[in-house]
Design goal:
With about 250 residues, chain A is α/β, with parallel strands linked by helices. Chain A has ten helices and ten strands. In chain A, α3 crosses α4, α3 packs parallel to α6 and α4 packs across α6. In chain B, strands 1-2 form a two-stranded antiparallel ribbon. Classes of the chains: A alpha/beta (about 250), B mainly alpha (about 300), C mainly alpha (about 400). The complex binds adenosine-5'-triphosphate and magnesium ion.
Chain lengths: ~250, ~300, ~400
């Protein structure tokens, strides 16, 4: 079964036609990178996958998006359940004004888990998976704002992992970080791939080629090309893709 | 047992649906909370409509041409409220003459000359403090300074100055905010063409900020016309059939008139009709002020956009 | 060119002067209020033009304003209650002299009153005689109380506000202060839940279209003059309370609280809603992306995040309520007694000023006492303004 299966997706912000007839499939435990020039609709499509765009007034979607075979835009769908299964990491680290521990525990608590020993185990496990444990193990009760930007971003990843999503959406997760933190996040993505299906938006070609199995190139709201990453970066079919990855683009 | 299952559901949900979880309690609490908030919000609206509806329905019968253009008669149980309307107009005019120039100038100083400086912060704090001072304290102050110390007596002058000081913070704040909303690039554009700071403010900044400033001024007029406590001891007269002839005369005023005929008139019951009418006129002023400021804001913002 | 430069400087100077007007006003308010009020503690305890006389042997040589009132109200009847000997108090006013002396003895033109008053005071060890100054003999045989000054304790600690009491007017702050606090607290307890609910609804729940209708309506609520609220309270809420709770009078602290609560709503709603709108979108999205419902996001993230804004809203609302004059004056019944329940009439500080300043002769003790009330009110609102400044600076 495909993990993500988008069919004929069109998306509108009020009158603005932001995505045009997108068809895209993602298999389980694969990493897919979205690339393309600014404003081409990468974030928009990513946010379609956990229905984050519902928060914006006047948006409209046609076509269908299936995750693990279920239409996530069907009537009767609970968005909070969907978002529990499809986690998201944002461009800028956005920890809550709470302690490090409570940040990671948040998702468990809002999903009705009350067993404190379980929460503690899960929090530690997630922080370890996010490769943050050694740096924060002595200050779990400290405010999350006391961490560096890169640490905050890994905390946000830990937070997303704690509720065991199946899919992890990452919107330029390293764009606000220094090279060392970026390298750490990339390593982490490589590790996480074993357990999760990952979709990552990036402006960094090297990053896309390093971390992803498949790459999708968007341009002006259209999905121009979607193929194995090696293929896209060595021998793209479309001239537009070629221009973009070689930096000859506008 | 139940706990175990819960954890299962939340961690390894291999066989559960992606979009239809079992955790319904959080959705229930959301539904309940939102219903409560909605009900509370609508009850606030209901109260507003009750107040407005009550006064409009009771007061509309009292309104007539004579009511608006005749002086009170028979111990204020009959006749009109013309002197009070005129008095309130004078007070609004007098206080505006004082507070508009000073308020707008302060706002300009804070945003154009001292933006971000200690002085601007200080002025802002003082202005905020002044806006927190209760109106009755303004009344005391006005009586002590203008009426007694400066010897203006109970007069339009003393009342206008008191009301002017009261509305000053509102004028300053709206001016400052209107100016702040204008992008800095417009100023740079003008300065780059060799215009002086003053010219830039006069020719570029003020015209652009004008619509918002005007809106603030209108709101301050609304506020001034309804104030009672500051005029109690500085200008308001219980009953004066004649119109004032100088700024050292006392006047009647709408809010004070409403107060006296409902609490200490010669015949409170007989004045009820007049009271409802006066309240309606006051509400009408507020409505007018709000509608006018909204229209102006929309009109100007459209104009700025199309330009 | 020089002229132009000079003009620029001139204008800047004029603008600076305008900018200083609010600061100067605050300074002047402080100056004038405190100047008028300070006279209060220099004014005599005993009614102007009168003295109190006591027997020489009486060890009590000083009386506070409150003690004098209690004595003349026959609440204190023995000198030992106020630190004197065991001796019943004998209260004598000028008119009472006829009980002790015949009209002939006092003289046709009352020319003998000074001598007789002196004699009477000397003879009765328990006497306290209230006498116009003009009838005090040169060689009066007794203790005279006339230069007693009102003490700060009489004002700040006084339990009674009774400015027309004779021989000693009572300027006790406490009943008015407590009245103000009762009414304002009641108001805020009523309006805070509604205010926050509406703020949450407007900021997070309501659709754009609903918000666009509700917002202006609430602004309208803010613009209605306080006399109109007072009038509405008087003709609708007061009779309603009277019938519902079967009260002798409907003008009660509760009526004041309800009216003030309605009046404080727009302030609370606007400030709290602004605070909630200032919660970064990314923080909200972070919560939703973890599977939290909207409501969970509101109470776990948005409300804690905007705590300081909501606190400001509450404090600001209290400030408005404490200073509000006309509406309260019209619906609370204005009884200057310390209230025990919300269903009794009370009198607040602003209402007292508004109601009594017109009758108090300029410069009299009563007038000064009202200015002292103004000072108290001013100080309370200053503290509130400053604490809001302080709360606003704190992040979470
Ligand atoms: N809330 C919104 N309302 C209206 N239009 C929007 C909104 N968000 C995005 N758009 C428009 O949709 C288009 C796609 O935006 P999107 O954010 O998906 O681009 P992107 O590919 O993620 O760009 P970037 O690389 O800069 O993040 C853009 O033209 C943008 O202007
Ligand atoms: Mg983007």
């Amino acid at each position: 079964m495909l993990t993500i299966d988008a069919k004929n997706v069109d998306f509108y912000y009020s009158d603005f036609h932001a995505l045009k007839n997108i068809n895209l499939e993602v298999e389980q435990n694969k990493v897919v990178a979205f690339i393309g020039p600014s404003g081409c609709g990468k974030s928009t499509f990513l946010r379609i996958l956990n229905r984050m765009n519902d928060l914006i007034d006047g948006t409209r979607l046609t076509g269908s998006v299936l995750i693990e075979g279920e239409d996530i835009y069907a009537p009767g769908v609970y968005v909070d359940e969907l978002r529990k299964k499809v986690g998201m990491v944002f461009q800028k680290p956005n920890p809550f004004p709470k302690s490090i521990f409570e940040n990671v525990a948040y998702g468990l608590r809002v999903n009705g888990i009350k067993d404190n020993t379980f929460i503690e185990e899960r929090v530690i496990e997630s922080i370890k998976s996010a490769a943050l444990w050694d740096e924060v193990k002595d200050k779990l009760k400290k405010s999350a704002f006391a961490l560096s930007g890169g640490q905050q971003q890994r905390l946000c990843i830990a937070r997303a992992l704690a509720i065991s999503p199946k899919v992890l959406l990452m919107d330029e997760p390293a764009s606000a970080l220094d090279p060392i933190s970026t390298a750490k996040i990339e390593e982490l993505i490589y590790e996480l791939k074993k357990d999760y299906t990952i979709v990552i938006v990036t402006h960094n070609m090297q990053q896309a080629s390093r971390v992803s199995d498949k790459t999708a190139y968007f341009y002006l709201g259209e999905l121009i090309e979607y193929d194995a990453t090696t293929r896209i970066f060595t021998n793209p079919k479309e001239i537009s893709t070629q221009n973009y990855i070689t930096g000859r683009f506008g | 047992m139940k706990k175990e299952k819960n954890i299962e559901n939340n961690t390894n949900s291999n066989n559960s649906s992606i979009v239809r979880g079992s955790n319904s309690s959080k959705r229930w609490s959301q539904a309940i909370a939102f219903t409560i908030f909605k009900l509370m919000s609508y009850s606030v609206v209901a109260i507003l409509i009750l107040i407005l509806g009550f006064i409009v329905s009771k007061g509309i019968g009292a309104i007539s041409w004579d009511f608006l253009t005749k002086a009170p008669e028979d111990g204020m149980t009959k006749g009109g409220i013309y002197p009070a309307i005129v008095g309130t107009l004078y007070l609004v005019l007098g206080s505006s003459l004082f507070s508009f120039p000073i308020g707008i100038m302060s706002g300009i100083y804070m945003n154009e000359y001292a933006a971000g400086s200690k002085i601007a912060t200080f002025i802002r704090i003082m202005t905020n403090n002044l806006s927190g001072v209760p109106s009755v304290v303004f009344g005391l102050f006005g009586m002590s300074l203008f009426v007694n110390t400066m010897g203006f007596g109970d007069s339009i002058l003393a009342g206008s100055l008191t009301l002017g000081l009261l509305s000053l913070p509102l004028v300053i704040r709206t001016t400052e905010e209107s100016l702040k909303a204008i992008d800095f690039s417009y100023r740079e554009g003008s300065l780059a063409l060799g215009a002086t700071k003053l010219q830039t403010i006069r020719k570029v900044v003020l015209p652009m900020a004008f619509p918002n400033i005007i809106t603030g001024l209108i709101l301050s007029i609304g506020r001034v016309s309804g104030e009672t406590a500051p005029i109690l001891f500085t200008v308001a007269a219980y009953f004066l059939p004649k119109l004032p002839t100088s700024i050292f005369d006392q006047v009647m005023a709408l809010p004070y008139h409403l107060y006296v005929i409902t609490t200490s008139g010669t015949n409170i019951e007989a004045s009820r009709e007049i009271a409802y009418g006066t309240a309606l006129v006051l509400i009408f002023i507020v409505l007018l002020v709000n509608i006018l400021s909204t229209i102006l804001r929309n009109y100007f913002s459209k104009k700025v956009k199309t330009n | 060119m020089k002229v132009k430069r000079f003009l620029e400087k001139l204008v800047e100077g004029a603008l600076l002067i305008s900018g200083s007007v609010t600061s100067i006003t605050i300074l002047l308010i402080v100056l004038f209020l405190f100047k008028e009020a300070a006279g209060l503690f220099n004014s005599p305890v005993i009614e102007e033009g009168y003295v109190l006389a006591m027997n020489k042997s009486n060890p009590v040589k000083k009386l506070t304003s409150y003690q004098i009132k209690e004595i003349f109200d026959a609440e204190i009847t023995n000198w030992d209650e106020i630190g004197g000997k065991e001796e019943p108090i004998e209260v004598v006013r000028l008119s009472d002299l006829t009980k002790y002396y015949t009209e002939e003895e006092l003289g046709a033109e009352f020319e003998n009153i000074p001598a007789k008053a002196s004699e009477l005071t000397a003879k009765h060890p328990g006497i306290i005689l209230f006498l116009p100054e003009q009838y005090v003999a040169k060689n009066f045989d007794g203790t005279l109380l006339k230069h007693e000054k009102l003490q700060p304790g009489d004002f700040f600690g006084g339990n009674e506000w009774y400015p027309t009491a004779s021989p000693s007017a009572q300027y006790g702050l406490l009943p008015l202060l407590l009245g103000t606090i009762w009414v304002s607290l009641g108001a805020i307890l009523l309006s805070l839940p509604f205010g926050i609910a509406v703020a949450v609804y407007l900021a997070e729940i309501a659709k754009m279209r609903v918000r666009n209708v509700l917002k202006p309506l609430i602004e309208l609520l803010a613009g209605i003059p306080s006399v109109v609220y007072g009038f509405f309270g008087l003709v609708v809420i007061v009779p309603f309370l009277q019938q519902t709770f079967l009260l002798p009078v409907g003008e009660t602290a509760l009526a004041g609280s309800i009216v003030l609560g309605i009046m404080a709503l727009p302030t609370i709603i606007t400030v709290a809603e602004d605070a909630m709108r200032n919660v970064p979108r990314s923080t909200k999205e972070a919560s939703l992306a973890l599977g939290a419902t909207q409501w969970q996001t509101i109470y776990r993230v948005i409300i804690p995040y905007s705590k300081s804004g909501i606190t400001s809203a509450a404090v600001l609302g209290i400030g408005r309520a404490i200073g509000e004059t006309m509406a309260v004056l019209m619906v609370t019944g204005n009884a200057a007694v310390i209230p025990h329940t919300l269903l009794e009439p009370v009198r607040t500080i602003p209402a007292t000023i508004a109601a009594e300043l017109g009758e108090a002769p300029v410069g009299s003790g009563h007038y000064q006492a009202l200015f002292a009330l103004g000072c108290v009110l001013f100080l309370i609102t200053m503290i509130i303004s400053i604490s809001i400044e302080f709360i606003g600076k704190k992040k979470y």
